[in-house]
Amino acid sequence: MARRSAPDVNAGSMADIAFLLLIFFLVTTTIDTDRGISRKLPPPLDETVEPPIIKQKNVFVVEVNKNNDLLVEEVPMELKDLRAAAIEFLDNGGGVGSEACDFCQGAKDPSSSDNPVKAVISLRNNRETSYSTYIAVQNELVAAYNELRNRESQRLYGKSFIQMEEELKDVLYSGSKDRLKEQIKNIQMMFPEKLSEAEPKK
Fold it and tell me: Which UniProt keywords apply (predicted)?
Protein backbone atom coordinates (compact mmCIF):
# COMPACT_ATOMS: atom_id res chain seq x y z
CA MET A 1 0.00 0.00 0.00
CA ALA A 2 1.39 3.42 -0.97
CA ARG A 3 2.21 5.89 1.82
CA ARG A 4 0.34 9.12 1.84
CA SER A 5 2.35 12.30 1.94
CA ALA A 6 1.44 14.71 4.74
CA PRO A 7 -0.17 17.87 3.44
CA ASP A 8 1.92 21.04 3.75
CA VAL A 9 0.76 23.56 6.34
CA ASN A 10 0.38 27.02 4.91
CA ALA A 11 2.42 29.21 7.30
CA GLY A 12 2.22 32.32 5.18
CA SER A 13 -0.22 34.11 7.49
CA MET A 14 1.46 33.12 10.81
CA ALA A 15 3.56 36.28 10.86
CA ASP A 16 0.44 38.41 10.36
CA ILE A 17 -1.38 36.61 13.18
CA ALA A 18 1.60 36.97 15.55
CA PHE A 19 1.84 40.68 14.69
CA LEU A 20 -1.88 41.22 15.36
CA LEU A 21 -1.63 39.40 18.70
CA LEU A 22 1.38 41.53 19.64
CA ILE A 23 -0.54 44.73 18.87
CA PHE A 24 -3.56 43.45 20.81
CA PHE A 25 -1.51 42.74 23.96
CA LEU A 26 0.37 46.04 23.71
CA VAL A 27 -2.89 48.00 23.48
CA THR A 28 -4.81 46.14 26.21
CA THR A 29 -2.05 45.63 28.80
CA THR A 30 -1.82 48.17 31.62
CA ILE A 31 1.64 49.06 32.86
CA ASP A 32 2.08 49.90 36.53
CA THR A 33 3.72 53.25 37.06
CA ASP A 34 5.22 54.53 40.28
CA ARG A 35 3.37 57.48 41.75
CA GLY A 36 5.24 60.26 43.44
CA ILE A 37 4.34 62.39 46.43
CA SER A 38 2.58 65.63 45.59
CA ARG A 39 4.76 68.44 46.84
CA LYS A 40 5.04 72.07 45.86
CA LEU A 41 8.67 73.13 45.50
CA PRO A 42 9.72 76.41 47.10
CA PRO A 43 10.18 79.39 44.78
CA PRO A 44 13.72 80.30 43.64
CA LEU A 45 15.75 81.89 46.42
CA ASP A 46 15.52 85.67 46.36
CA GLU A 47 18.54 87.19 48.08
CA THR A 48 16.72 90.49 48.74
CA VAL A 49 13.91 88.95 50.79
CA GLU A 50 14.76 87.82 54.30
CA PRO A 51 13.17 84.54 55.41
CA PRO A 52 10.41 84.96 58.01
CA ILE A 53 11.27 84.37 61.66
CA ILE A 54 9.51 81.24 62.92
CA LYS A 55 8.98 80.79 66.63
CA GLN A 56 10.21 77.44 67.93
CA LYS A 57 6.78 76.68 69.43
CA ASN A 58 5.29 76.84 65.91
CA VAL A 59 7.58 74.04 64.66
CA PHE A 60 6.58 70.40 65.12
CA VAL A 61 9.68 68.24 64.63
CA VAL A 62 9.18 64.69 63.38
CA GLU A 63 12.31 62.58 63.02
CA VAL A 64 12.80 59.06 61.66
CA ASN A 65 16.13 57.40 62.48
CA LYS A 66 18.00 54.67 60.58
CA ASN A 67 16.19 51.97 62.62
CA ASN A 68 12.83 53.38 61.43
CA ASP A 69 12.05 54.60 64.97
CA LEU A 70 9.83 57.67 65.16
CA LEU A 71 10.76 60.61 67.39
CA VAL A 72 8.25 63.44 67.74
CA GLU A 73 9.60 66.49 69.55
CA GLU A 74 12.47 64.19 70.68
CA VAL A 75 10.01 61.77 72.33
CA PRO A 76 9.55 58.20 70.94
CA MET A 77 6.13 57.66 69.38
CA GLU A 78 4.28 54.91 67.54
CA LEU A 79 3.27 55.60 63.94
CA LYS A 80 -0.42 55.05 64.80
CA ASP A 81 -0.28 58.02 67.24
CA LEU A 82 1.41 60.46 64.83
CA ARG A 83 -1.74 61.73 63.13
CA ALA A 84 -3.45 62.61 66.42
CA ALA A 85 -0.29 64.38 67.66
CA ALA A 86 -0.05 66.40 64.44
CA ILE A 87 -3.74 67.37 64.64
CA GLU A 88 -3.30 68.44 68.26
CA PHE A 89 -0.36 70.66 67.25
CA LEU A 90 -1.99 72.18 64.15
CA ASP A 91 -5.37 72.78 65.84
CA ASN A 92 -3.94 74.12 69.12
CA GLY A 93 -4.82 77.80 68.55
CA GLY A 94 -2.63 79.14 71.35
CA GLY A 95 -2.13 82.56 69.78
CA VAL A 96 -3.50 85.82 71.21
CA GLY A 97 -4.46 89.09 69.57
CA SER A 98 -3.76 89.15 65.82
CA GLU A 99 -2.36 85.60 65.99
CA ALA A 100 -5.51 84.14 67.58
CA CYS A 101 -7.43 81.37 65.82
CA ASP A 102 -11.22 81.63 66.10
CA PHE A 103 -11.97 78.26 64.44
CA CYS A 104 -9.37 76.13 66.26
CA GLN A 105 -10.75 73.54 68.69
CA GLY A 106 -7.47 72.60 70.40
CA ALA A 107 -6.24 73.03 73.95
CA LYS A 108 -5.07 76.66 73.38
CA ASP A 109 -1.75 75.79 75.02
CA PRO A 110 0.46 78.93 74.91
CA SER A 111 3.59 76.74 74.64
CA SER A 112 2.35 75.12 71.40
CA SER A 113 1.42 76.53 67.97
CA ASP A 114 -0.30 79.91 67.72
CA ASN A 115 -2.52 79.02 64.75
CA PRO A 116 -2.52 76.67 61.71
CA VAL A 117 -1.20 79.40 59.40
CA LYS A 118 1.96 79.80 61.52
CA ALA A 119 2.38 76.07 62.28
CA VAL A 120 5.12 74.19 60.40
CA ILE A 121 5.75 70.43 60.50
CA SER A 122 9.45 69.66 60.05
CA LEU A 123 10.20 66.13 58.85
CA ARG A 124 13.74 64.83 59.19
CA ASN A 125 14.91 61.39 58.19
CA ASN A 126 18.09 59.39 57.93
CA ARG A 127 19.54 58.17 54.63
CA GLU A 128 19.11 54.61 55.93
CA THR A 129 15.41 55.09 56.74
CA SER A 130 13.32 52.59 54.77
CA TYR A 131 11.21 53.97 51.95
CA SER A 132 8.04 52.32 53.29
CA THR A 133 8.46 54.01 56.70
CA TYR A 134 9.14 57.36 55.05
CA ILE A 135 5.95 57.08 52.95
CA ALA A 136 3.91 55.90 55.97
CA VAL A 137 5.02 58.95 57.99
CA GLN A 138 4.22 61.25 55.05
CA ASN A 139 0.76 59.68 54.74
CA GLU A 140 -0.03 60.23 58.42
CA LEU A 141 1.05 63.89 58.31
CA VAL A 142 -0.96 64.61 55.15
CA ALA A 143 -3.93 62.75 56.68
CA ALA A 144 -3.76 65.11 59.68
CA TYR A 145 -4.16 68.12 57.36
CA ASN A 146 -6.96 66.38 55.44
CA GLU A 147 -8.85 65.54 58.63
CA LEU A 148 -8.79 69.15 59.80
CA ARG A 149 -9.73 70.43 56.34
CA ASN A 150 -12.63 67.95 56.20
CA ARG A 151 -13.88 69.15 59.59
CA GLU A 152 -13.90 72.82 58.57
CA SER A 153 -15.34 72.03 55.14
CA GLN A 154 -18.22 70.12 56.77
CA ARG A 155 -18.82 73.00 59.17
CA LEU A 156 -18.76 75.76 56.52
CA TYR A 157 -20.10 74.06 53.39
CA GLY A 158 -21.80 70.86 54.54
CA LYS A 159 -19.49 68.48 52.66
CA SER A 160 -16.00 67.09 53.07
CA PHE A 161 -12.92 68.71 51.57
CA ILE A 162 -12.07 65.51 49.70
CA GLN A 163 -15.58 65.46 48.18
CA MET A 164 -15.12 69.07 47.05
CA GLU A 165 -11.80 68.21 45.37
CA GLU A 166 -13.44 65.24 43.59
CA GLU A 167 -16.32 67.43 42.41
CA LEU A 168 -13.83 69.95 41.00
CA LYS A 169 -12.24 67.19 38.88
CA ASP A 170 -15.63 65.79 37.81
CA VAL A 171 -16.52 66.92 34.26
CA LEU A 172 -20.21 66.15 34.95
CA TYR A 173 -20.39 68.45 38.03
CA SER A 174 -23.39 70.74 37.52
CA GLY A 175 -22.58 73.43 40.10
CA SER A 176 -20.35 76.49 39.80
CA LYS A 177 -16.70 75.43 39.51
CA ASP A 178 -15.51 78.98 40.31
CA ARG A 179 -17.43 78.96 43.59
CA LEU A 180 -16.09 75.49 44.37
CA LYS A 181 -12.49 76.62 43.68
CA GLU A 182 -13.01 79.58 46.02
CA GLN A 183 -14.32 77.32 48.80
CA ILE A 184 -11.39 74.90 48.39
CA LYS A 185 -8.91 77.80 48.48
CA ASN A 186 -10.56 79.16 51.62
CA ILE A 187 -10.17 75.80 53.42
CA GLN A 188 -6.55 75.51 52.23
CA MET A 189 -5.81 78.98 53.61
CA MET A 190 -7.28 77.99 56.99
CA PHE A 191 -5.04 74.90 57.17
CA PRO A 192 -2.13 75.47 54.77
CA GLU A 193 0.02 72.38 54.28
CA LYS A 194 3.37 73.58 55.62
CA LEU A 195 5.43 70.40 55.58
CA SER A 196 9.16 71.10 55.61
CA GLU A 197 11.60 68.32 54.77
CA ALA A 198 15.15 68.70 56.04
CA GLU A 199 18.02 67.08 54.17
CA PRO A 200 18.48 63.50 55.35
CA LYS A 201 21.24 62.84 57.86
CA LYS A 202 24.08 60.53 56.82
Answer: Cell membrane, Membrane, Protein transport, Transmembrane, Transmembrane helix, Transport
